[in-house]
Amino acid sequence: MRLVGPWATGRDGERVGMARIGQVVRQALKGGDGRMLTRVRWVIFGGALVMALLTVVQTGFARGPVGWRAAAVLVLAALAWWWLRGLRRGGFPAALEPLELIGAPVLVLAFNALDQLDGVYYFALFFRSLYGSSRLLAARGLLYAVALSGSALLLGTADALKVLGSLPVVACVTALGYLLANLARRHDQALDRERVLTNAGTRLQSAPDRAAAYRVATETAIQLLCGMRGVRATVSVLRPEGDLHVVAAAGDNAAAVLGTAVAVADIPAAFRSVAVDRRPAYAERLDLGRQSALPPDVKTGAVLVLPLTVDHDLHGLLVVASDQPFAADVHTSLETLATQVALRLDNAALTEQLTEMAFRDSLTGLANRALIRDNIARALSRSHRTGRPLGLILLDLDGFKQINDSLGHEAGDDVLVALAARLRECLRLEESAGRLGGDEFAVVVEDLVDAGGAIAVAERVIDALRAPFTVSGHEMPVRASIGIALSNAEVNDPGDLLRNADVAMYRAKRRGTGSYELYELGMHAAAIGRLQMEADLRLALEREELAVHYQPIVTLDTGEITGVEALVRWHHPERGQIPPAEFIPIAEETGLILPLGHWVMTQACRQVAEWQRLPGWESFELSVNLSPHQVDHPTLIGDVRGVLESTGLAPGTLILELTEGMLLRDMDTAAKRLAALKALGLRIALDDFGTGFSSLGYLERFPIDILKIDRSFVARVGSGDRTALAEVVIKLSQALHLQTVAEGIERQDQFDELRRLGCLLGQGYLIAKPVTADTVEGLLRRPALAAGR
To answer: H or E segment at 707?
Structure first.
């Protein structure tokens, strides 16, 4: 047989129809959707359905006419369908309720008795009392009583007393169903709130920030108040200004509340203590007007204010309101929600603190290296989309080590903090600063048109550093070398941009303090070349590729060689002779100048000590240059003493040459260091005198023995009035009882004029170029080395 209607589709209608019936049966056995109220409804519906089926069977034995009995079967089937429809849809239309009672007279006439009517309709009344409010259930019970009374009149007055006796049963059945429905409904609501809180906990754990946690709090509060009228919820945070600011809102009029603020003093006293005592506050039938920190227009109903606290640390307020009072279990659920939200906000605060520590420089408060790289990566992505270049500015303080060494690291930290403050003041919103480490800072500049925009920022930074810094009661100038690099289509990595800016910055540092340099193609290759030269220089020290050459120093009056200046030379096995101007700066920057300088001093002292053993050359002098790194190094005195002891050179014949810049960086330390050197018996020469900050004051303060006239002054000798500079230095030396040595003598007229002016000693290509030790020995055997002789 083929089934039709809603139970069958397609060729397999019989199988599909039976499957549908089985699905309904399984749903009934499982209690519908698993809720307690649904299960109770299914059980009572099953009883009513069984009673209806039994009544259908009893119609075969009923005493009424066949037509009424057939009508009764149809009525029972219609009732069963009506109950099932209401069960599936979760309710019954109130307007159609009276129609359900029309079948009562039919059953009475079919059975000619009230017994079957009582059984069917008592079960129906019990089942229907699981739906609707108490008022609706009272009206339904009254209708059932009217139906029973009307049906009794069809049988005669003899059954009237029986109907009256059943009315208390009707009332009891209705009340029992209502109570059972309420119990089941409360059980289901408790489960629903538990599910809502569980889901809220999951959402809070995955919330990426505080704003997301605030939204979860308000939305969950509305879900917990499901079924109540006029529900609204807000989360407010206490700002530094002292007012409450609404950061999240849900429910009625949420858009009007969000972002508003109210002073704490304007909050009703019933709730003002929440921020102090950290305890929930609840009140009913309040007239709050339009307090922005609380849900607006709360004139009736109830308001619950919950502090979001962990260990008395207040993160905000969760305010929930409704037009109806809250039940006790709703109170408990909302307090649980507040605890969950507070824990998430506490974790968020800890996460933010850890993030701040991970991405912020603890000393200056600027972005650290990790955050700078992240900012550069994001800015590069935006730059590629917009086509406008990104600029990166690196600045490194010049002479910062001297500040730390002379005033201490705390003073150095004060300089860095003050520098960070000046950067904040001179930079604009689209320019972000950070500290890479040490005394190196970075500025990221977005949305540039060309290099001019980045150069303007660099000049602004240089101007901001012109005013001296006051540290530990001292005013000191601070300068910085700046490197600028711009992004392009080939620069896709923050490391590349940082590298380019770093290369440009070191180029600027070599130019002089307080300058900037824009990265250009070829700088990277030059930097690679410098790295390779550094590696080769390290190997050169190990492989003894270096050699010491000696430039003779003569007495200008007699031409007699009185000493030599030791100069290092490097013959590279592949590149040949490398000028000192190329590898000495690299040795200075990398610290290789320390082992290199010690090696040169040792070799030269050993060689000159051998010459001093020649007859007549016991007082032969040696001049050795000291680098700034050597002067600053704490082992200088011990190193020099050790070289003198190991080589046997007479201390009085060793002359150490220093420049003015070395002495002026830290005059107190320099004075102590020179005094210690003088205590060894050697002499001090001031090299390149007149090219720096020449001052009579430090000439008197420092134990200087010799002034070396810079080659730039010597070059002007013999050219009319230009001779005056060299003459001033010579006269000054004579007045201070110092020796003078003229460097860079290359012409005969220079030689003659310097001798006329009273300069004692000289050196230069006119006299002799730097030569090997074997060549110097040959020169020593000649009677004189003066020019023209």
So the answer is: strand 706-709
Domain end: 301, 336, 358, which one? Answer: 358
243, 391: one domain: no
Q: What is the pLDDT of residue 638?
A: 92
Helix axes 593-612, 580-590, angle to 10 degrees: 120
Q: Taking Cα atoms as reference points, which of 146, 139, 101 lies closest to residue 120?
A: 101
3-state secondary structure of 473: coil
**Cα three-residue angle 627-628-630, rounded to 5 degrees:** 65
Q: Which of 756, 753, 778, 777 is nearest to 766 (CA)?
A: 753
How many CB atoms are located within 10 Å of the residue 446 CB? 20
| Residue among 543, 636, 654 at smallest CA distance from 598 | 636
Predicted confidence (pLDDT) per residue in 249-286, tens digit: 888 777 777 777 777 666 666 676 676 667 787 777 66
Judgement on whether residues 348 and 287 belong to the same structural domain of the protein: yes
The reply to whether 756 and 702 lie within a common domain is yes
pLDDT at 511 over 50: yes
Residue 237, helix vs strand vs coil: strand
CB-CB contact of 509 with 405 (8 Å): no
| Residue 295 per-residue DSSP state | -
Do 349 and 311 meet the contact criterion of CB atoms below 8 Å apart?
Answer: no
For residue 670, the domain's CATH number is 3.20.20.450
Distances (CA, A) of 518 to 114, 484, 504: 107, 5, 6
- Number of domains making up the chain: 4
Residue 290: which domain range?
A: 224-358
Contacts of 607 (CB under 8 A, 6+ apart): 548, 550, 773
Give the strand order in the sheet containing 431-437.
Answer: 431-437, 440-445, 391-398, 479-486, 516-518
- Chain centre distance of CA 206: 19
Q: What is the pLDDT of residues 170-192, one digit of tens each?
A: 677 777 777 777 777 777 677 77
Three-point CA angle 10, 14, 18, nearest 5°:
120
What average pLDDT score do residues 90-96 get? 68
Query: What residues form DSSP beta bridges with 467?
Result: none
Q: Classify residue 186 as exposed, middle or buried by CB count within 10 Å of its CB (0-12, 13-18, 19+).
A: middle
Total Cβ atoms within 10 A of residue 614: 12
Q: What share of the chain is helix, strand, coil (3-state, %, to 5)?
A: 55, 15, 25
Q: Are residues 652 and 773 in the same domain?
A: yes
Question: Does 318 lie in the same domain as 289?
Answer: yes
Count Cβ atoms below 10 Å from residue 618 Cβ, excluding itself: 11
pTM metric for this prediction: 0.48
CB contact at 8 A, 257 and 246:
yes
CA atoms of 49 and 42, how far apart (whole Å): 10
3-class DSSP state for residue 246? strand
DSSP-based three-state secondary structure for 563: strand
Cβ neighbours of 57 (radius 10 Å):
9
Q: Rounded to an integer, what distance in angstroms lies between the CA atom of residue 680 and that of residue 654? A: 10
Q: Is 655 helix (H, G, I), strand (E, B) or coil?
A: strand
**Tokens matching residue 468:** 């001296």
| DSSP E strand boundaries for 189-346 | 232-238, 243-251, 261-263, 281-284, 302-310, 313-322
| Residue keyed to tokens 């049966």 | 25
321 and 295 in contact (C-beta within 8 Å)?
yes
> Cα–Cα distance between 690 and 579 in angstroms, integer?
25
Domain match, 236 and 147 both: no
- Burial (Cβ within 10 Å: 0-12, 13-18, ≥19) of residue 46: middle
pLDDT in tens, 41-60: 787 777 777 877 887 777 77
Asked if 740 and 517 count as a contact pair (C-beta separation under 8 A), the reply is no
Written as six digits, the tokens of 464 are 């901001």
Token pair belonging to 46: 């099953």
* Contact partners, residue 572, CB within 8 Å, separation at least 6: 536, 540, 545, 578
